[in-house]
Amino acid sequence: MKSIFSETQNNVINKIWVFGIILFSLSMILYYIEVFTPNTFIFTQLWRVLFWFFNTLILSWYFYKNNKIKTGIILQLLSLPYFFKNDISFFLDYNFTHYLYNFTWYESIYINKIISFLTLIIPFFYFVKYYFALENFNISKKTKWFFPVLISIVLLIVIDIEARDTFGNFAFLNFSEPYMQDILITIIEFINTFKILFGLIGFFYITNRFGGIKSIRKPIDEQFIDKNFFKWGFIISFFILILTVLDLAQSILTISIFSSKFDFAEICKLISSYFLLLYSGRFLGNLIQFRGYSLKKYFGVINVFALAPILNIFTFFVLLLTKKTENATQYFLNLKKNKKLHLAIYCLLLTAFLVYEYFTNEVKTINDLIKIPVFILAILLVAYYKIMTKIVPFAVVLFLYFKHIKFFFDFTDGYLVFFKDKIFSFLWLSSFGVFILYYVLYYVLHKSFYVEYSDIENEEDLAVNIDKFN
């Protein structure tokens, strides 16, 4: 089995609490400068320089801890223009306006977009090159394209480096005591530091897992899943999945309220989020299935709670602490019976939840009751047929959101309006996110109940498949 972390990654993870203290201290210094110092040129520039140093240190720290001081410094210097992109854009626009406005299509905002893109992409590719060179991954040709996407996710999601009035966002709150704002900011920055550290560890974990596999469809090799592998895999994949969902919700809400134009940076961020959501969901699904194979036990409905915050603590500890069954024959003999029993329990729980939801709703509709047979049919299909993971999630979305989808494909105002207001907008991207969420949900449900070759008479194929996990 591939090691959890490489030696170079462990150099960062060991005593990572020291790095956490540095980041937290810098964030509190930034807060002090922004809130408690006069709004002068010197303090403004000092804040911007510290903000640049804080954000770029997150990735440069990897090189510093592995004695690649020159690489780390160059990465931070290459990132510097990004944090002064508005000044650079203004300078170019002001000094070259006479020449640029000879082009009828030119607008001042174009320079800002080009500078933003170039100042981000240059340090991004620099980090890609030197990180994977130092890790020395044996990357297959099929998965080589994935790595730049994965790193862009880390840059755009885990480390959100948009220079904005971070602490001023709380100015609208009326605190009874002045120190209450300080306490709130301290708590938020402490949580944010934890998020960055955990995100960095998660990034190391995923790249280390992905470095040796041959297919994007299978984020984990078919192998025995021991306690240590499962513990790290479950915690990190679930954390990244939830973090991505929350970030998606925030991005879509921000876009819907504040964005009126098609912004390239926001599109990249959304697409990256969808990709990470898809990958982490498939990783978690395969992890719980392979853990069951490794223990020679059928967990079924217990696995279902893997996606539910708080409730998944039960799933985690059951799969972590359960002992491996020595008598594999008994596992094979009881497999079909256990599967039917677990599916029956799931259907009863699902029905009870939907009935409760129906009676507690102020507005009751027949569709709320129709959900019961639809969702039961959906789980039976994905539990018995692998191909259904590609059909059922989308059918469920069509059933639940038919009115919204019908509105989306409404051509009554003409095809031009359709393309302008719907296709060339964020609407289709946010709608696509709903399909991805349901796909991840039903993929994990499929992996919770489905066992390869368990529904055919040839028990030798089932035994050979399970033997891979000994």
- Mean pLDDT score, rounded? 78
**Proportion of β residues?**
under 5%
State the helical fraction. Answer: over 70%
3D shape = globular
Number of structural domains: 2
Structural class: mainly alpha
C-alpha termini separation: 12 Å
- The Cα radius of gyration reads 26 Å
Largest sheet: none
Would you report the number of β strands? 0
Low-confidence stretches: 161-166, 168-172
Helices, by number, come to: 19
SSE order, as H and E?
Answer: HHHHHHHHHHHHHHHHHHH
Protein name: Beta-carotene 15,15'-monooxygenase
Organism: Flavobacterium azizsancarii
Keywords: Membrane, Transmembrane, Transmembrane helix
Transmembrane segments: 12-33, 45-64, 73-94, 114-133, 145-163, 183-208, 229-258, 300-321, 341-359, 391-411, 423-445
Describe this structure in words.
With 470 residues, the protein is mostly helical. It is built from 19 helices and no strands. 73% of the residues lie in helices and 0% in strands. Helix 9 runs antiparallel to helix 12 (312-321). It starts with 6 loop residues before the first helix and ends with a helix. Residues 161-166 and 168-172 have low confidence and may be disordered.
List the helices and strands and how they pair.
Layout: H1 7-13, H2 16-36, H3 41-65, H4 69-83, H5 85-100, H6 108-135, H7 146-158, H8 178-210, H9 227-258, H10 264-295, H11 301-304, H12 312-321, H13 328-360, H14 366-384, H15 392-400, H16 402-408, H17 415-423, H18 427-449, H19 459-467
Helix pairs in contact: 2-3, 2-8, 3-4, 4-6, 5-6, 7-8, 7-10, 8-9, 9-10, 9-12, 9-18, 10-18, 13-14, 14-18, 15-18
